[in-house]
């Protein structure tokens, strides 16, 4: 499980691998082309000094990523130091033994850089795809998260649950290079998920996708209270803030460039899909006030202000949405690493 060090603050970049529609052809972008962009972005992040790179999991034709360990293994061979995590592993519709072995293999390939963010998933397509009942949504995740915790502890395991066949002195191989794979739980808006993460002693990756950050503080409080009640200390209970982010030389430039991608993403995957209405520039500008979009100085101010609320030790940025040009995404990654990160660490009096 993650360990906490109050003298560190990490920066990460993650992608869900969405495939935007090409306005010229009306067809989705090639998954193969998108994969190459993602690997290239990971290399840029590694070279620039970003601490963590993550890839998501979806099982739909409008996303390129369905197997995070495979993609991360490819990235491991092209990078040298950056930590590698799933941005979400949909644990409820996966076999935790297989997931653990995949990430343990990734850990060996990457010389101990593997991590995982386990989540319930934003979509439900994986339930019928892998033969699970949607009615078991919550119980599946809780049971499998507990099994994942135990798999991390021992190379042999005896376990039984309601929704998976039991294990009797089963050998779990290979073992990772790290003592254990760091496991985080992705949390959206429910105290139940936050409390579950705390009870498991996992890290909590809290998604802030709009609205005043203060309205999410109760989730962090719930997480830490549940974790402390379960016997975990602050060295284990660790919070990451994740969300949409874009950095440019000026805030005006950042708003101009990111609106082009965000408005497409909104229409394809978010509120615009239900009502068929595009996101106006005025509405985007209002929303952007609560997102990490702007100049390096502006974003550093927002991260420091959030740190006062949450006491988090990691910030994870999703930049490459809605067909954002790769060159712009790569430049934003570099600015996050070379300008935002030093400003935040200086303000928090953290030494690299």
UniProtKB/TrEMBL annotation:
Signal peptide: none
Residue spans crossing the bilayer: none
Any matching Pfam family: Bac_luciferase
Keywords for this protein: Monooxygenase, Oxidoreductase
Superkingdom: Bacteria
Domain Luciferase-like stretches: 10-311
InterPro entries, sorted: Bact_Lucif_Oxidored, Luciferase-like_dom, Luciferase-like_sf
PANTHER family listed in its UniProt record: BLR5498 PROTEIN, LUCIFERASE-LIKE MONOOXYGENASE
Descriptive protein name: Luciferase
Species, as recorded: Paenibacillus glycanilyticus
Organism phylogeny: Bacteria, Bacillati, Bacillota, Bacilli, Bacillales
